[in-house]
Amino acid sequence: MKKIFFGIASLFVLAFIFSSCHKIETPPTAELTPDVYPLTAAQLSSAAGPIYISLRSDYQGYWFLQSCSTDEAVLPIFATDWIDGNKYMELHRHTWTKDNAWVAGEWSYMTNMIGTANQTISVIKASAPEGAAKNTSLAELKTMRALAYFMMLDCYGNVPLDTLYGATDLKTNSPRAKVFTYIESELKASIPYLKTTTGTATYGLPTQYLAYSILAKMYLNAAVYTGTARYDDCIAACDKIISSGLYAIEPASTYLQMFYPTNGPGQKEFIFAIPFDASTSNGYWFPARYDLNRNLGIRYLYSGSTSGGITDPIMNQSSGSGLNNVKPSGPRMTTSEFYAYFNDPNDVRNKQWLTGLQYWPDGQPIMVNTTNLGYNQFYTGASPAASYTYQLNLTPLTTSRLGATSYDLGKDEIAWNTGYRNIKYLPDYTNTISRNQNNDVPIFRYSDIVMMKAEAIFRGGAPTLGATALSLINSVRSNRTTSAALTTLALDDIYAERCREFTWEAWHRNDMIRFGKFETSYGLGKTNTDTYRRIFPIPSTAMATNPNLVQNPGY
C-alpha cells in the first residue's frame, strides 16, 4: 500500500488514558492503563499517532497563510463568491488584523500540535520502559514539536514556550531569538536517537534528516529570526543530508509525478512528507482539490494544455465525454508578477500551470456553452440571453474590469477564466465522491537542501564538498530544463529558481522575506509596505485566553 497510517485508532486509546470515566463499583476488565500501555515499540508508535494526525489536520490552512500572503497565490472575489469575511483579500493586500480568520486558525493549529506533543511526551515518559524504543519515540515527538515551534517562530515571531503538559501557569511571549535557540537545542539533542533509514518504514516519520532540514532552514533564515547570520551552520546541516547518499534530485521525467496522487515513499526527493489518503476523514488537501459541486468538467481539463500539456496516466478523457460547461473551478490562481519567473520554454516546471487555450487530450478544443450575458456581464448588444459558445481560454491576472482598485473580478465566464491555475498537486480523477485527495504533501525535499546550501554559500558561507553556489543551482536546473546551464549567478537568480522549484509548497513567504521582496507591489492592489507584517499578529482569541501574551509590534 502507498499510504502510511499513524494509528488513527490511537486517538481512542489515548482517550482511555487521559479521560476515562467509569462507575466506581464496576471493576475494569480491559482498560489500557499506564502499567500496560505503551510498552512495546508498536504501542509507542500507536501512542504517537495523534501528533501526525494533528499535523495533517490543517496543513492546508498553513498553506493559505504562507502562500496567499505572497505574489504566488491569490483568491479574488467573484461578485458574492469567496468574500468569506475578506480573509483572502486581507492576506493578499497585507491588511490583516489580529481578527483575521487565517491568522487565528493557524495559531490554534500550531499550538494544538505543540499541546498534543507535550501530552504524548508526558505519557511516554511516565509509562514506557527505559530503552532505545522509548528514546527514539521521545526524540521523534520532540522533533515534531520543534517543527511546530519552527512554524510558529516563522509566522508569529515572539511566541510562548510551553513544553510541560499539565502546567497551569500562563506563559508570556519569549523573544524570537530565544525560541530559535530552544528549537535548535531540542533538535540537536534529538538527532542521536532518531532513525537514519528511509523508505516505507520511516515515511512520514521524523528522521535525523528531517531534524537537519529544519536546522538548515532555521540557519538560512537566522539573520531574519535573530539578527545574526548562520550560513556556515546551514551548509553543515545540508551536508549531513547530502553526505548520507540517501536522496537524489528527481529527473525532469518524474518531477511532476512527485506531486501526483500516486506519490509516496518511492519519491527520491522526499525527506519529510505528510501522507494524505482520500479514504480518511481529514484527507482534505485543498491545493489538490477543485470544487466538484461547481462543475465536474474541470477534473478532465488537466489532461491537456497549450502550455505544455500534461498527459495524466490516471485519466484520459476525450472530447466525446459529453461534458458541458467546462470551466476552471475554484479561484486559486497566481499573479502575473509571479508567473513571469516561468520564462524558460524548455523547463518542465512550466507544466504545473494551466494557461491559454485549453484542449482535450485528443487535441480537440474544449468548448464552453453559455449566453452572451453569461460570458460577459457588461454585454450591451442584442439578445443577451442568446447562446454563446467559445473555446476555454485562461488569461493572465492583471487588474479587475470593475476598477483598478477592485478585488472583485466579476461573475461571468471572463471572470472565471481569469488567472493561470496551478495543478502541481494533480487531483485524483478517480475520486468523485469527496473533496479528499491522495496526494502526499512534501514539507522538505532534497532539492531544497541543495538550493539552501547554494544560497548559504552565495551569501558568504564557506564552500564544502567541492561544490559552489553555481554548481549546486545548476545541478537542480539540469534536472528541470534542457536550456543551457547558468554561467554566472546573482541572488535574484537563486530567488527565481526557488520560485520555479517550490511553487505551491508553502515556502514562498519565507523566501520573499529573506530576499527582501515581501513589501513589493503585485496582484490585485497589494501595495502595503509595512515591514512589521513580516510576522503575523497574535490573534485576539489567543490574547483573550492568555492575558499574559504581548501583541507583536505594529498591531
Automatic annotation (TrEMBL):
Keywords: Cell outer membrane, Membrane, Signal
Domain RagB/SusD, residue spans: 268-555
Annotated signal sequence range: 1-23
Identification of the protein by name: RagB/SusD family nutrient uptake outer membrane protein
Record bears the keyword Signal: yes
InterPro entries: SusD-like_N, SusD_RagB_dom, TPR-like_helical_dom_sf
Stored PROSITE patterns: PROKAR_LIPOPROTEIN (PS51257)
Record's subcellular location: Cell outer membrane
Organism: Mucilaginibacter boryungensis
Top-level taxon of origin: Bacteria
SusD-like N-terminal domain sequence ranges: 89-220
Family: Belongs to the SusD family.
Cross-referenced Gene3D superfamilies: 1.25.40.390
